[in-house]
Write a structure and sequence with these properties.
222 residues; alpha+beta; Archaeosine Trna-guanine Transglycosylase, Chain: A, domain 4; Methane Monooxygenase Hydroxylase, Chain G, domain 1
Amino acid sequence: MSTTVPLFPLGTVLVPGLVLPLHVFEQRYRDLVADLLAADETRQHFGVIAIRSGHEVGDDGVRALHEVGTLAELTDVTALPDGRYDVQTVGTRRFRLLGLDPDSGHPGAAVPYLRGRVEVLDEPVGDTAQLLAGSVRAAFERYRTRLRGADSVLPDDPLLLSYTVAANMLLDLVDRQQLLESPDTSQRLRRALRLLAREEVLLQLLRAVPATDVVRRAPGLN
């Protein structure tokens, strides 16, 4: 089954369960938020999808998108006096982008913001998720300690653990996108374990840590 949803291309990757604040200032995305607020509550969601080529701002900014993104649900909206919005969202389900609506997202289009036909993806667990979860949890605790990140309880559920680690590692877009696209929880945990091992070696070699809290995320701007 496929459905058509508004799309919000970003230079970052949203994973299910992650809170994503947005400051909405471009007119087309103001229109998107206004349309969502006017819709039934069951339809107040949109697709966040990472930009493969191009940039966030401008009519011709986005040239190519990644294939897999995450549906974001509105949780709080503050309308500012000049028409901008401060929006709080949370990632819910992954989707695969099947195609773009040709009547959206370009000058003169019927809909000013992009819309896409998407297929919501299942979340299979895989055969080794429970076995891998303990190793990933231990490796992430070592990683977080080395980065002096905030201490918090990691989830026991392997699926939630896989997305928590994906969201909170200091990764570039390509690595985080690959974690999002993993076909099941087992493969995501296995990939996360390889990334954690790589990052531990790099931190040991550099003998320094990034000047960023591992659990802090900057708001996306569009």
